[in-house]
Please model this.
Amino acid sequence: MEFGLLGPILIDGQDCTALLAAAKPRKVLALLLLYANQVVPVTAIMTELWDATAPRSAQTTVQTYILRLRKLLATVAGCSPQQVSRELLKTKSSGYLLQVGPGALDLHRFDQCAAKGRRALSVGDNESAARLLDDALECWRGPALVDVPAGQLLDAQVTRLTEARLTALQQRIEAKLRLGYHHELLGEISALTTEHPLHENLHAQLMLALYRCGRRPDALEVFHRLRNDLINELGLEPSAKMQRLHQAILVADPVLDGPQRADGLAVDYIFRLGQLV
Model:
């Protein structure tokens, strides 16, 4: 059985895929999956479902939702609800634990591939980094928990997952820029800067890609647009690293022409993920 959080919530069995129609049971399942193989306290479930206004019947209602989930999981797994309660969705002293096998949750696969990709990028293995980060991003089927109405706890987790995906995107772009794919990346990076108009690192990646495509005026225009937005929205000038990249483009510094080595270190003193923002 496989589960999904990176998009609409998903329970996928060998012979069928299950859908949860009701919002509150979806919230409970989302919490159990986010903390898979860990005990989720009943108090945390109640906070997510009702915040500070839990009814007197809240604990009984949570038990009802767990019973529904066990029946659903039993249908997908082709076993009894009793077996599910023993082996999959277990009752613990303070809450509930959903047992998820290795590789059965898309979030776990994403985290593992992204971590391997980061390690490859850090040692200059750019081809492996690009491949692993592509694999990580393919785990996403849409915005995280897009069909789950997020409460206090889930909202924080959705924000965390969204940031993790954006970081993986930037790292994949960096790996591919190091490999010389600046032409192929232009459309994607341009769309990301439109979506994130104050994000310095994405703008730096776009500037570098444009410069390497022979579009120096456009690269400079990206900087000026970002600077205006930062001043108007936040009252801030671009960071020192962004300004150094701008200056390097102004003077056509040869170090920006493209990586001279397989690890791309020729451009790292000006441009490196994590040092711009």
Q: What stands out?
A: Confidence is low (pLDDT under 50) at residues 260-271, 273-277.
